[in-house]
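User: What would this chain look like folded?
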Amino acid sequence: MSETPMNTLQYRFDGPEDAPVLILGPSLGTTWHMWDRQVPELTQHWRVFRFDLPGHGGAPAYPAGSVAELAERLLATLDRLGVQRFGYAGCALGGALGIELALRHPERVASLALIAASPRFGTADEFRQRGVIVRTNGLDPIARTSPDRWFTTGFAAAQPAITEWAVQMVRTTDPGCYIAACEALASFDVRPQLGGVTVPTLVLVGSDDQVTGPAEARTLVAGIPDARLAVVPGASHLVPVEQPAAVTDLLVRHFTTAWQPAYDSSTGQMAIVAAPVKPVLAAAPPQPAPIAEIAAAVVQPQATGRPDPYDAGIKVRREVLGDAHVDRALAQADEFSGDFQEFITRYAWGEIWDRPGLDRRSRSCVTLATLVAGGHMEELAFHTRAALRNGLTPDEIKEVLLQAAVYCGVPAANSAFKVAQQVIREETTPTE
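Assistant: Here's the prediction, encoded as structure tokens.
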């Protein structure tokens, strides 16, 4: 362990210094201790490198808002240590980071294991909503429900000490870093790019995982050219914690039989080795052939002048208002209203909301005040939701409406408080 600059990650090494490096990546809300029961066996073969996500496990709270940024911080950490090539195993968000590394820096990844991972984690709305709840209520509601997402019911009941450890691990995470990690997962979607993962890959999933289950695992296997699937019975999302022996055995077998040789820059060649015999995974029940529909990459025509602001507009509109709201608005558009939907996407969202002069929190404040002034209560409702997603707290929204009461009139503010109060209750009440 060592002091951690802003552009690197908190880390630790275990195992012999002259062994190949194997990196273990954690899940959102966990620390490197989620891998404790794998380390004794893995360090017989590798030098194991573990890291904490920003604000997790006492790591410095320097939020990272994208998986790509996390990957760059990990690589910066490894560069400082002189580690150029490594095997990588990651769970959930740690798995997303592994996919990012394999896509953007394949020359550094010798082999890959994706655990409880997915090319897209739920929907962007789900993770941004979680950020709203944490910003308003803190991490306690998320911490209390984590065992339900992470473990099977039987395991949680039989292992109260591990269950409490999981709750405390989430509870002590920095809220701002947790919210930023939710944003990273909200924007992560590599379904069209899976064919670009060219390293040997093991996809491992718990049979009872309700977060990223066997269906997501089969999507990964269907899209990644050299991928194998292992389903571990009797395990949920944190399968390395719930079934440590099975996960350890699968990792040892994968990384000892599927380690891609390094590219030789002096000859411009790479040694080609015979594909290993696919191991028989006795712990996994037979699975049907993986079938999944993966969106094909759309090739955009080369721009010939100023970019059309529509593309930026639809992206910002979805990020601020949410996919569900935008999908409803576009689905309801017809020949009469379709041009208007295109107009507001291109000019309101692509030209104005995407301007760099104000951040989104400031634009939400301005928008709320002007909607109160105009008496547009229906729009105030979904822009209150947008303000929460853009980082305003309920107290800050209250201050905006009080300010509006002075300059727009008490009757308008009275109506606005009723609308905003209902929205805030709906959006910030934790779901048990």
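The mean pLDDT is 89. If you want, I can go into more detail on any region.
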